[in-house]
């Protein structure tokens, strides 16, 4: 379900840009993840209060409705709201993890979390090729119609099979905090998106930046006074804060690379731009390679975490991600290298997601599993959105005109990869610090 809402649309990103006559790739792609920043903590808190199974059903219904809206949207102004609703699907991931923690013993849960967070890659690998063919025949809208069908099917299965949570905790839902957090991030990221087009000091982008910053500041001030805020920053603790920082930097870097793949694959080497993979191989295969890596990395990381601990596994995954991102300097011009390093990055993110969830869950009591797991998803969404928008702004500000068409320059593409490398390197430093700190605690 998460893949159908977040990753699968990347296959048809160039077609969507042409259909809506826009160059705002980040809004078409990352708006669902942006919504996830608001949906995740809200639904995580609801899950602890009302039950994880019930909230998972709400999640599937909201996301399915958003997918239908995207499928019929005549303009980008209807498409983006649909993506914002569809973004509720990101909650399906952490709710599944929280349910696993409810029904499994701790050591077994670490392995099962790896299967849950990465097992869908088995289906996603094959679906890449089917979706590419369906999109060519019926248009990109077929992907969103398919996502709605998946949501309905999963809702039926969840209702029939998944038990309701045995542990709930009374509490209030901070809807206002979710709106302030989501709206604030939307304003700041709108500035990043529009500033490169209209000018960084143009009135409209500056107004959006000011409104977004004001909303985030308001959220921070109000959250510190509320007895039950959406995210209680006072109760994070050092290890959990480090875990969240690693996740936001590393997953953001990976998601930004996924956004770059179809854009590089849409350019041919014969155009003389200094990069390009068009004509060298299938885009579907390029996007399926990370799925293979995820399928392998998730369960392996779960098994390793049960032996050496989630902190050490997390550090190893991030270090591997640094190598995978560096390899994309070669992958921008050579299809075999692109496939190999896409596989490495997929392995990294499979291990990263499993280790991040396991690490956060090990630091939380049973009655807060939903909320703490949602914070990991908030970091996944925040990192993905920020680096996707930053990368898109870099590409836009460095684009060149050739034959009357505006295309991404080699400077923009390699600067994009450099930013992702720096984010992964920063995450690696933090992950090593976290691993050493947790080792000292065990001793």
Automatic annotation (TrEMBL):
Presence of the UniProt keyword Cell membrane in the record = no
Q: Which UniProt keywords apply?
A: Membrane, Transmembrane, Transmembrane helix
Which spans are transmembrane here? 25-43, 55-78, 84-101, 108-126, 138-161, 173-194, 200-221, 233-254, 274-296, 308-331, 337-359, 371-393, 413-434
Major facilitator superfamily (MFS) profile domain location: 1-438
Keyword Transmembrane helix among UniProt keywords: yes
Report how it sits in the membrane.
Multi-pass membrane protein
Question: What are the protein's GO molecular function terms?
Answer: transmembrane transporter activity
Q: What are its GO cellular component terms?
A: plasma membrane
> Where located?
Cell membrane
A Pfam family of this chain: MFS_1
Q: Which InterPro entries match?
A: MFS (IPR011701), MFS_dom (IPR020846), MFS_trans_sf (IPR036259)
Q: What is its main location?
A: membrane
Source species, domain of life: Bacteria
Q: Which PANTHER family match?
A: COMD, MAJOR FACILITATOR SUPERFAMILY
Q: What name goes with this protein?
A: MFS transporter
